[in-house]
């Protein structure tokens, strides 16, 4: 085992470099069909998507190399940013949309045609098909108008951020792919071991998710929580184990590399991320998406904690009898250790 550790560390470093090249160059790796996340509402190759759900499914397929369409890295990134827009007003003209995602109108027109639409108008119709009915746009518009001036009361500033977080959670719920989510839950519930990887502020999310899952099942850990090395911990796992990776744009290089290595080691990778164009999608068996647009000074993670709670509850519900026994055993331990002061 001691002889394997340097080899595994070298392997992680090597794959990390390869992963970075793939992300920067827009290159893709051919994946097996059973490694695709399960998605609903797939369209035939000759029919362009008619709504936001079908567009998101198409981008996932393009990212995995399983679609008849081929897009470069910049086009995929633009596509992902368009799908993540919450304010429908930004979609009402090609000019406002191009300004919102910081690109040229001609780029959006080319993207629409590459996806099989005759022009922007048809693409716009698909984008607006469900978004005009989303309450998230109302929350975001209200929040944006709350802070036109920097000298507004602190309560209004707090209200803005809270409304934006409400919008993100609403957006997550309305666009949740139930089949992909159910796949993730089944993999977690049936796994021999589960490890969760997120760094910087998402390390706290990884710890929270690990704590919740440990309440209802054994052998859940945070990857590299003791700084002993991601390579060593991934190397100790194998087929039948699950690795949950968490990152949003700008994506953490270490997490992308770890996801690639875990996938190549035979682990089932579950991605919790923001966009269908995320580099974590290509190695995942299931992907769960949550938006994080807000006025917070860093990436907002409130919606991701909501995702974590949904995952924990769903795993608990997947086997209610075992969950009940696990919770009883945990409560007995808490009493014996006199943890709680009543």
Assigned CATH class of the largest domain:
Alpha Beta
- Tell me the radius of gyration: 21 Å
The helix-strand sequence is HHHHHHHHHEHEHEHEEHH
Low-pLDDT regions:
1-44, 132-150
Q: Please identify the structural class as seen in this structure.
A: alpha/beta
User: Biggest sheet: strands, sense, closure?
Assistant: 5 strands, parallel
Strand order of the largest sheet: 2-1-3-4-5
The CATH superfamily of the largest domain appears as Glucose-6-phosphate isomerase like protein, domain 1
* Annotation field: number of helices: 14
Count all strands and give the number: 5
Describe this protein's structure.
By secondary structure, the protein is of the alpha/beta class. It has three domains: 31-131, Arc Repressor Mutant, subunit A; 137-174, no CATH class; 178-336, Glucose-6-phosphate isomerase like protein, domain 1 (Rossmann fold), CATH 3.40.50. It is 55% helix and 6% strand. The protein contains 14 helices and five strands. It has helices spanning 4-25, 52-64, 73-83, 94-100, 105-114, 120-131, 135-146, 154-174, 178-190, 201-214, 230-235, 253-264, 302-318, 320-336, and strands at 194-197, 220-222, 242-246, 268-273, 286-289. A five-stranded parallel β-sheet has the order 2-1-3-4-5, sandwiched between helices. Helix 12 (253-264) links the parallel strand 3 (242-246) and strand 4. Helix 4 crosses helix 5 (105-114) and helix 8 crosses helix 13 (302-318). The longest helix has 22 residues, at 4-25. The radius of gyration is 21 Å and the shape is globular. The termini are far apart. Mean pLDDT is 77; it is low at 1-44 and 132-150. InterPro entries: Homeodomain-like_sf (IPR009057), RpiR-like (IPR047640), RpiR-like_SIS (IPR035472), SIS_dom (IPR001347), SIS_dom_sf (IPR046348), WH-like_DNA-bd_sf (IPR036388). Residues 184-342 form the SIS domain. Residues 24-50 are annotated as: Disordered. This is MurR/RpiR family transcriptional regulator. Pfam families: SIS (PF01380).
